[in-house]
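Why should sequence recovery work at all? Because a backbone constrains its sequence more than one might expect. Tight turns favour small or flexible residues, buried strands favour hydrophobic ones, and helices have their own preferences. The token representation captures these environments compactly. In the example below, the structure is given first.
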């Protein structure tokens, strides 16, 4: 198994857990605001990994990941 496949498998498993968490929060706890944010944040990881896997340029992948980290830090500081 290559490193790339392991990363994809783990991100898919994580996304499934996030979707299950979203369903639990909305159906059982009637929580809609927080559940939407959990869903967006949790599933964006898979989207970033998929986008990076399509790129062959290592420098571009690094720029994408740095930009993502900056956005996460900015969002954490706003809360």
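From this structural description, the recovered sequence reads:
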């Amino acid at each position: 198994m290559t490193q790339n496949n392991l990363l994809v498998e783990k991100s898919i498993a994580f996304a499934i857990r996030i979707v299950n968490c979203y369903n639990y929060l909305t159906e059982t706890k009637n929580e809609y605001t927080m559940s939407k944010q959990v869903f967006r944040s949790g599933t964006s990881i898979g989207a970033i990994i998929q986008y990076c896997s399509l790129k062959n340029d290592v420098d571009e992948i690094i720029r994408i990941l740095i930009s993502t980290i900056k956005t996460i830090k900015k969002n954490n500081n706003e809360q």
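A few observations help interpret the result. The radius of gyration is 15 Å.
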